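User: I'm preparing a small set of examples for a lab meeting where we compare how different chains pack in three dimensions. I only have the primary sequence for this one, and I'd like the structure in token form so I can line it up with the others. Please keep the answer compact; I'll paste it straight into my notes.
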Amino acid sequence: MALWGGRFTQQPSELFKKFNDSLPVDYRLVEQDIQGSICWSKALQQVGVLTDLEQQKLQNALQALAVEVQQDPQQILQSDAEDIHSWVEQKLIATVGDLGKKLHTGRSRNDQVATDLKLWCKAKGEELSLALVSFQQALMDLAQREKATVLPGYTHLQRAQPVTFGHWCLAYVEMFDRDIGRLNDALYRADTSPLGSGALAGTAYPIDRHALASDLGFRRPTLNSLDAVSDRDHVIELMSCASISMMHMSRFAEDLIFYNSGEAGFVELSDQVTSGSSLMPQKKNPDALELIRGKTGRVCGSLTAMLTTMKALPLAYNKDMQEDKEGLFDAMDTWQICLQMGVLVAEGIKVNSAATLAAAQQGYANATELADYLVSKEIPFREAHHIVGEVVLKAISEGKALEDFTLSELQAYSTEIGQDVYQYLTIESCLDKRQVLGGTSREQVELALDSSRRDLAEIFPSQVTGSPSEPQIQIALRHVQQRLNAQKAAALSVRQAKMTDVDAIDAIVRFWSAKGETLPRSRDNIVHDIQNFVVAELDGKVIGCACLYIYQTGLAEIRSVGVQHDVQGKGQGKAMIQYLLEQARHIELKRVIVLTRVPEFFGKLGFVKTDMNGLPEKVIKDCDICPKKQACDEVAMEYLVGLPAPGQLDANLIVKALVG
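Assistant: Understood. Below is the structure token output for the 660-residue chain.
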């Protein structure tokens, strides 16, 4: 039965029904539709439309339907319902009778589908955020593995200057970090609830839309009913995020397709992501990468289609907007599987370092170094550029490298060239001379490295003494890893605390302080410090908290760390600490301390033991309220956040340049 059939005297044609029905696409919103219906039933109960008993009966039936759908999702597609909303309503009526017909009171399919879709976008966005972080981590692992491998750098697909394979990996880490930022921004704007907007003018019932939005898990309700039911910016923004990120994926794929070619031979792809030829037995084709490259057009096409659909629609809802879901679902699914495939590709790559080094030594990549050498001899750069060009022309005609010229042969082009020129022409020199921020020089990072040698040893057990580019990559790896840890924390639903979290934080702190594991904190104290707290969520419920308390000296202390005892072991505690450490780095703190009875937990996160007596008096003063003051068994630990010492380069600028 259609939800709109009362004013019609004829049945729609079968062709129109097939053309009009959206169930084959929007069936994926079933969980969100059930969730929205449960919350709407509570809202109707609160304004007297439903009794407590009626609401509970509807909620029980909807929850049972959710279980039934999880066990057999294909049953939805066997129905002749118009869309997922009518399917849920029909199933509900079949279970509870006419009571099911009351649920749609004050609600329109316009605000219903807008709510369902936003709930789906939020859930899918969390999956995609985790997929992006996982791919970044795979790139980080590859960068760590190949940090010293020399790789020819290219401009115009011509060999230019040598870099390292690790530096190449970190370039893509930066791209996907921006993708995460865009995704988070889009999800923040999408985090508003349209429910209660009705068809276009708002519902006639005195629904508390703030409470309804909170019940649904949104940060607030939408503020204009016309906009709420006709807004698909969140769809367009997510497609835009996907398109930009897939463009990055395509560039990553294209680089590796070239590196994997017989002409380059720089890498070998795993058998898990390649296929063979039906005719030529010797072939090993980079199909996974080619499909990533090909699917990029598909995702970008979905964005173009949606922009075209929305560009001339008058307010409010129009049936054109039914076309939003098919492209969105496909784009998000495609983006997600390509990220997962990217992880598999990165994990299985074997780099032929001999081939990459040989290639870097060819193509006259050291020509710029020769020009710089001449500049050091007081020759103007334009003149030096011309001289080196003539040398390269001669080298090409004779088929030999610049470093193979004798001194007398080089001096024929400039008498300023001396015996010391050869140290400028080595690969090591080409790398080591890149002393500007973002280059591959060791010298530019040694000052910062000296001040954090112990901290680095916690993360990288062996110090680097080989390639001159390695310390630079080590610094970059550590900071990017720290940032990735924070992004993983966000993906695990760690966020800044809000005033609405105070009761949950208070309950967690009271539980653990009663056991003597944390210091007691009053509710007023938590309210006062709420901006310093982060919380961890599980299924939309706050189950953990932690606080970064900053003293006037710039020292910070992590305290009030707790996770509900019945949900421990899921990584939320670690995620909250990593989130706070990234926060400390972002505001340029130098040192974070913790007083703990579980030093092994914090040790794994990079903290090291420190002398309790060396802590500021104000930190120790807090111990006065500790029930175990007379028999203290806590260990003092510290984490050194910032790398630079006074007069040294700013670590944030170093890292931004390094990995950018």
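A couple of notes for your slides: Residues 34 and 62 are 6 Å apart (CA to CA). The longest strand covers residues 541-550.

User: Perfect, thanks.
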